[in-house]
Design a protein that fits this description.
The protein is an alpha/beta fold. The chain is built from 11 helices and 22 strands. It has one domain: 3-Layer(bba) Sandwich (FAD/NAD(P)-binding domain), CATH 3.50.50. The chain has an 8-stranded mixed beta sheet with strand order 8-7-16-17-18-15-19-22. It is globular, with a radius of gyration of 22 Å. Bound molecules: flavin-adenine dinucleotide. The site of flavin-adenine dinucleotide (FAD) has 32 residues, from α1, β5, β15 and α8.
Length: 398
């Protein structure tokens, strides 16, 4: 990886400029540079280095088998395994303990359903694989964008100018590049927010992730390596803010009161909270700027799909670009970008609407819906075919 010095007024010409080196942007930049394209990556903040005894990142994600397979091909999964992650074999959903449904890796003939990983470590594992031909600008951000018919020009905050055939915006839900490209969005802020807490548990490392649905919102358990776990607690926003303001000992008491008994006697180490928003970009591209990951869509994290959708965007987009590059075609053509949009936008919208359906079905106490969700869980618990289908969906099978 070539880290480019600050305060330069030279213009650099590359094939692709990627803005945002989070999990999705880093995977895009790695995939393209491994295929021999000249790539520049612009990122505000580098990932924190790994210390084996450091506390886990509060931001964790459930990574499905489809994402794992792609990250393995990129060479980032093996270093991540050498740092820290936690596989899980079972996924449980319930409202009352008697309606508990278990989806098992065995249902899809797999050794596991997915892994819980720390966002920072996954990002770091990707960054560690950057080859020498990748030009990294970090810390840096974009001041201006201008587009011509055959190229785009970015001006960075250090004065550097970057000319490319394509700009990939992977700068997250509040994407500045999306705004600079004039792409609007639609969506809404959910009335609920979620509290995320890192806890110590009395149990050895667990192989199960579970979610209890209650009328005030879901309560989820995500296992971490050793005797630790991540807790996600959805409530209305004022209550989440109030919980987030508590000291760890006080929050521990609230958790023990509100969560089901299988949580065990956990102790809160640290916590934070996140607002929940649904956002869909009106278009995935404009001229030679294309969106990927949260820059294109944000989804209710209820079923842990956000970054998995982002990796699916990144995989398809990079395959199209690499193929066009090999055939010496224009990698930023409207034809290529519309093929990407035609495939990914409907798939992402379908997942977003499915999550909203769950949110409505499981997140309230209206009697007919209460009966419907009891029925749904009972049917699911008795139908092995349905259980297999849900497990296939969880691992990211197409
Ligand atoms: C509580 C919670 C739980 C979640 N759990 C899951 C889960 O279990 N599974 C799952 O798949 N998803 C989950 N998600 C969603 C997941 O976190 C996001 O989908 C994912 O982080 C998106 O990755 P990204 O790389 O697209 O964007 P981001 O992670 O937002 O990364 C954007 C990057 O761009 C950089 N950047 C921003 N602006 C600029 C700029 N102007 N110039 C340069 N760099 C810039 C940022 O520093 C950052 O590194 C969860 C989300 C939340 C809130």
């Amino acid at each position: 990886m070539k880290t480019v010095a600050k305060n330069t007024s030279e213009q650099l010409t590359v094939d692709v400029a990627v803005v945002g080196g989070g999990m999705v942007g880093a995977a895009v930049a790695l995939s393209l540079s491994q295929a021999g394209l000249q790539v520049a990556l612009i990122e505000k903040q580098a990932p924190v280095s790994f210390e084996p005894d450091s506390a886990p990142d509060l931001r964790v994600s459930s990574i499905n088998l489809a994402s794992e397979a792609w990250l393995t091909r990129l060479g980032a999964w093996q270093p991540l395994q050498q740092m820290r992650l936690c596989p899980y074999q079972r996924l449980q959903a319930f409202e009352q303990p008697q309606s508990l449904v278990t989806f098992d890796a065995a249902d899809v003939k797999s050794s596991h359903l997915g892994h819980i990983v720390e966002n920072n470590l996954l990002q770091l594992a990707l960054w560690q694989q950057f080859p020498a031909n990748l030009a990294l600008f970090c810390p840096a951000s974009v001041l201006a964008l201008s587009q011509a018919s055959d190229s785009a020009l970015l001006t960075l905050d250090n004065g550097q100018q970057l000319s490319s055939k394509l700009v990939i915006a992977a700068d997250g839900g509040n994407s500045q590049l999306r705004q600079l490209a004039g792409i609007g969005t639609n969506g809404w802020q959910y009335q609920q927010a979620c509290l995320v807490a890192l806890v110590n548990t009395p149990y050895p490392q667990q192989d199960v992730t579970w979610q209890q649905f209650t009328p005030t919102g879901p309560k989820a358990f995500l296992p971490l390596p050793g005797q630790q776990a991540s807790i996600v607690w959805y409530e209305d926003t004022p209550r989440v803010k109030q919980l987030a303001g508590l000291k760890p000992e006080q929050l521990t008491q609230e958790l023990l009161k509100a969560f089901p008994a299988q949580l065990g006697k956990v102790e809160v180490v640290s916590s934070s909270w996140f607002p929940l928003a649904r956002m869909d970009a009106n278009s995935y591209y404009s001229g030679r700027v294309v969106l990927a990951g949260d820059a294109a869509h944000t989804i209710n994290p209820l079923a842990g799909q956000g970054v998995n959708l982002g990796f699916a965007d990144a995989k398809l987009l990079t395959e199209l670009i690499i193929s066009a590059h090999q055939q010496q075609q224009d990698i930023g053509s409207a034809g290529l970008l519309s093929r990407y949009q035609r495939k990914r936008k409907p798939a992402n919208l379908l997942m977003m609407s499915t999550m909203d359906g769950f949110y409505q079905l499981f997140g309230n106490d209206i009697a007919p819906l209460r009966n419907l969700r009891q029925l749904a869980l009972t049917v699911a618990s008795r139908s092995s075919m349905l259980k297999t289908l849900v497990a296939r969906y969880a691992v990211g099978s197409e």
